[in-house]
């Protein structure tokens, strides 16, 4: 099995340098990952649940985590990604999927205790399926003498985005600095929302009832200045750093909400590459 790199401080630097407008995600992820990896014998796995609207950086951050642990996230044999529409497409086969998922996770933990499991598009996950992981996430389960407690689980979804948007909007309208928003403002509200939402893979989930999520990680909606930073970054990757005209054009072509104020990009930075192609 590959050794986990010591330089996880590089993850923190990468998060602060390349993820825009997400001070909460930067702080929570860097703190929790560092604390977890420094503990040679953790009591339970690290379980993070990423929440927020499309284009705010959730997938980017999960990829960074995989990259810093294993050099190349999606091609590493120790990083496993599950997408409901691809892996669990048929609602009437949930029981079958539960058995497959349990077996898959168990097998991979036997192969590598420090496995990373990414569950994308949690809002499309069939309710009840993810609860099969409950024994792996708590402190009591033993898997074939494997130290399964060293694993990392990341859940990614848009559920809870309304709660996050509301808080960000209230803060903006009150004239407060974005960085004054704290993670504690969201933990209970996100948990309650995803537990009660039928459009959530955590609907009525025992994982939430047992409080097995280490932290809920809110991704805030992005303002125009964050979109501009996304555009600049993409342009530099294409060797066109100096194109301020393209930065202005792309940022100006995005849709912002609400109607009163136009504070936040409705698609985050997701549409940036396509729009650069139009204006470059």
Structural write-up:
This is Torsin family 2 member A. InterPro entries: P-loop_NTPase, TOR1A_C, Torsin. Residues 225-277 form the Torsin-1A C-terminal domain. The protein has 280 residues and is α/β, with parallel strands linked by helices. It has twelve helices and seven strands. The protein has helices spanning 9-18, 23-38, 58-70, 84-87, 94-111, 134-137, 161-173, 187-196, 206-209, 224-237, 244-253, 272-279, and strands spanning 46-51, 79-82, 116-119, 152-157, 215-218, 256-257, 264-265. The strands form two sheets. It has a five-stranded parallel beta sheet, sandwiched between helices. It has a two-stranded antiparallel sheet with strand order 6-7. Strand 6 (256-257) and strand 7 (264-265) form a beta hairpin. The N and C termini lie far apart (45 Å).
Global morphology: globular
The ordered string of helix (H) and strand (E) elements is HHEHEHHEHEHHHEHHEEH
In the sheet with the most strands, the strands line up as 2-3-4-1-5
Main sheet record = 5 strands, parallel
Taking pLDDT < 50 over at least 5 consecutive residues as the criterion, the unreliable ranges are 1-5
Query: Between the first and last Cα atoms, what is the distance in angstroms?
Result: 45 Å
Note the total helix count.
Answer: 12
Helix content: 40-55%
Class of secondary structure makeup: alpha/beta
Whole-angstrom Rg: 19 Å
Number of strands: 7
- The overall pLDDT, averaged over residues, is 91
Amount of beta strand: 5-15%
């Amino acid at each position: 099995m590959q050794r986990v790199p010591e330089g996880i401080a590089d993850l923190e630097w990468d998060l602060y340098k390349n993820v825009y407008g997400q001070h909460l995600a930067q702080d929570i992820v860097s703190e929790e990952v560092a604390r977890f990896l420094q503990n040679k014998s953790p009591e339970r796995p690290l379980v993070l649940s990423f929440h927020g609207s499309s284009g705010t950086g959730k997938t980017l951050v999960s990829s960074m985590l995989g990259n810093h642990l294993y050099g190349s996230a999606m091609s590493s044999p120790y990083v496993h990604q599950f997408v409901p529409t691809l892996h669990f497409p048929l609602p009437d086969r949930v029981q079958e999927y539960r058995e497959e998922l349990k077996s898959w996770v168990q097998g991979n933990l036997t192969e590598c205790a420090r496995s990373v499991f990414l569950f994308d598009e949690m809002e499309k996950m069939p309710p009840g399926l993810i609860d099969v992981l409950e024994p792996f996430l708590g402190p009591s389960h033993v898997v074939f003498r494997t130290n399964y407690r060293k694993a990392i689980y990341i859940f990614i979804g848009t559920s809870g985005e309304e709660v996050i948007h509301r808080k960000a909007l209230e803060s903006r309208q009150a004239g407060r600095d974005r960085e004054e928003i704290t993670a504690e403002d969201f933990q209970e509200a996100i948990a309650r929302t995803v537990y009660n939402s039928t459009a959530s893979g955590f609907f009525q989930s025992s994982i939430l009832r047992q409080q097995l999520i280490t932290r809920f990680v809110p991704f805030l909606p992005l303002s125009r200045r964050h979109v501009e930073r996304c555009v600049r970054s993409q342009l530099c990757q294409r060797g066109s750093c100096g194109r301020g005209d393209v930065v202005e054009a792309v940022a100006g072509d995005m849709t912002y909400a609400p109607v009163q104020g136009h504070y936040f990009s409705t698609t985050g930075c997701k549409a940036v590459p396509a729009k650069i192609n139009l204006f470059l």
